[in-house]
What we know:
By secondary structure, this protein is mainly α. Helix content is about 80%, strand content about 0%.
Amino acid sequence: MRKLLILALVGLAAQLVDGALGMAYGLTSSTLLLFVGVAPAAASASVHLAEIGTTLAAGVAHWRFGNVDWRVVTRIALPGAVGAFVGATFLSSISTENAAPWMAGILFTLGAYLLVRFSRPLRQRSGAGRLRGRFLGPLGLVAGFVDATGGGGWGPVATPALLVSGRMEPRKVIGSVDTAEFVVAGAASIGFLIGLGSEGFLLPTVAALLIGGLIAAPVAAWLVRIVPAQLLGATIGGVIVLTNARILLKAGDAGSTVRPVVYVLLAVGWVVALTFAVRALRRTRRARAIVDAATADTPAVTAVGATPSPDTAAAVVGAAAVAGSAPAGADDDRLAVVER
Length: 340
């Protein structure tokens, strides 16, 4: 009972993180299950079965808050489902001994990616027009395969790719990716069911993760507007890196003298990344304050057809250039409106 309660809390926390960042539910949950000794295929299967419920709840919540672009959802969900099904059948076909370092390696890489990405402002390109299917299709296919074989990865692959396109509001990127994941999780679960049978799913674990995620989903859709994703992403990335490093070192038969050195180096890298994340967050907030002050002095800046004064326009553009863009949140949308 105590273990199930802990898993429910993990599911709750993972869904809060996923709702704020558009990623990391699977990464966080799968990392914990591997840490406690669950077989890789069973861990990924159980997480994806739980995600059917959590992503459905998250999708409905994001839809109600206006965070979903249905055109993007349809164009990444179906290729993502194909990739997830293939990935699930692949993971089910290899031995636990071989799957553990494979899955831990994917999770470690994605955790390191989160550290790097959120330790600095994400520069968005100011794109025009809609995202094309020839971009969204391959993106969904790759993200789905990585997600199923790694126990997580749909968000870390799909969300940044859509963000840097500059053609979607950050909140709609997160809402659309979370909504499409419902289809991806369902396809992965079917693949695991075929490859492992029903005994491959740890149903008590699924129930605990599902309950925690369902409780958190509506709150997460609201938190996407206010949570400082910069700091949260760097924090979660460090946890994932350190936890999966243990599995990789064990699989590589690293000696007792090597392991502490590796852990210390990774911990130092984590602290450095957090420091850069805090600096980037403060820099972004200072730039936003300049934008707010400039628009407050000249309300006509955002009016349709109005032309700002040269001084005000220079201040707004300069502040936006300093800020870059934050990974998520309503303030990003305000900056984009001012820049336009």
